[in-house]
Design a protein that fits this description.
Distance between the termini: 72 Å
Radius of gyration: 32 Å
Helix content: 25-40%
Largest sheet: 4 strands, antiparallel
Structural class: alpha+beta
Length: 579
Amino acid sequence: MHFLDIVMMRKYTIILLLSLLSLPFTLRAHRLSLPNIEQLSSGKVLYVMQDREGFLWYATDGGGICRDDGRQVDVFRSDAEHPDLLGSNTVVCLAECGNRIIIGTTHGANVLDKSDYSISSLTAVDDKRVDDIIVTANGHWWLTANKKVYEYSPDGKLLRVLDAGDKYIFRLHENPQGQLLCTQWEGGTLRLDGGRFVQVDTEWPDSIDFSRVTTDNQGRLLVADGFGGCYAVSADKQECWFDGIMLTKEFADSVRLARQLSARPTAMAASRNGELWFSTGKDIRCKRQGGEEIIISDTRDVSAMVFAPDGSLWLATIFGHLYRYVDGEIKIDEYGSNEYGDGVTAMSVDSAGRISLLSDRYIRIYDPVRKTMRQQSRETDGTYMIELRETVSGCRWSQPVRDNISGRLPVWIWWVLTILLLALSALAYYALMLRRQRRRFMRQVKNEDRQTEITAQRVNAEQQPVHTQENEWVQRAIAQVEAHMNDEGYTVEQLSNDMRMSRMTFYRKIQSATGHTPTEFMRTIRLRRAAELLREGSMNVTEISYATGFSSVSYFSRCFRAMYGVPPTRFCDGTSVET
């Protein structure tokens, strides 16, 4: 071996070793969850890769091979109906060559043809453990099984079997010079030279694992960590998975600390160049390496924001307004805005530029180009689905989704559906009757309890001024709620415990003293405090909602409107505040 080859080999060894040593630090900062991971047939993943069509393929321990198209997971494994589909359901490695997926198991290798998803076996390695498979630049397949290396042509024809010596080969690798390298179980490295393997280094670290880290079509790492865990890693920037999501107080605080933001964000989105844009409740700012910059001033109560494929920024507020910011100018989209004032809790955008808007009552899909709007109510029970679900913008995992058009259903299916609908209607009517009977019974019980309580009050009226004691007791209950004003987790059970009585006794007593249920009693106290803060004018609506213990700004706005007849922004001055 030439001295230059030895120097280059050691150079690549050091680079690869340093890369693997730095991998845990990268994972902690940029670890991402893969789609539909919970649908896999086995909880332990040994290898993951993405093919040229954008599908994710998982090699599992005991669950066969799984294919994820971004919506569902298809499983290929041996079972009672197909006992010989795979050599073993423990798949340890995968590779793609053209329209084929080469599968390595603990008992042989198989080839899956993606044109018809048929699976055939490679007889040369039947009943042998296949530790690694790679496809080199010339399209040849290379398999390692036991102490031999098998070479196949791109069309699946066995070309030669190479003896690797007296040690087991467990990893294959093609270096930038096109040379095939092998690592051995007990350390050491071999290189294919002139049709045979020659020793390169006897001290190659056996912790190096070439095949456990691959990349997807977006340049992110796909990792099976060797312990069953499977995830993606963004090497250059943080994934924009929070785009359009309504932030909870806890998550917003964690992002503020992690990204070192100047204020708690109420909504966030990442631009195409990786910059973080966020709303403080008063303005829109951009977080860059050099610091923060206010991009849009005087934008209040923004609850969701997302970047469209054309680079424009869409903003939604807790009052249903929809804005578009492009070329330094912000404009309200009157057609896409909600005229009823329902707050937008989340939003997303697909590759065609259509915007999905989610509120407490319905889902809207808005096309700003065609000015069309689709709406699905959420007030009735049922399953709600947004028109297009994308794991990556415009992709099933990384490719465009095709629409499937089904033909007309046969007549007998309509009859079956009609009968099922009638049966479900009868069942629903029966459930409604039972519910009404239960309500009548509970109303009767409450009336009896009320009459008993009134009788007891009349008997003791002359002996004890009950209204004075009740007034003192109510004041103590109000003091308990005010002491936990900013604690959104403070419940009726905790209040009754603080008042040293059971929940049922507390319910009856507060109902008798105030005419409200405990929940209405607590909400009234919080809303009265919110009104005081609004009169003071030192805090905005978002800050007041958190300070008075409400879980979201939209819920606070709805409760405030129900009690005072106007939204929070109109409470003091009687005019609509632009957001």
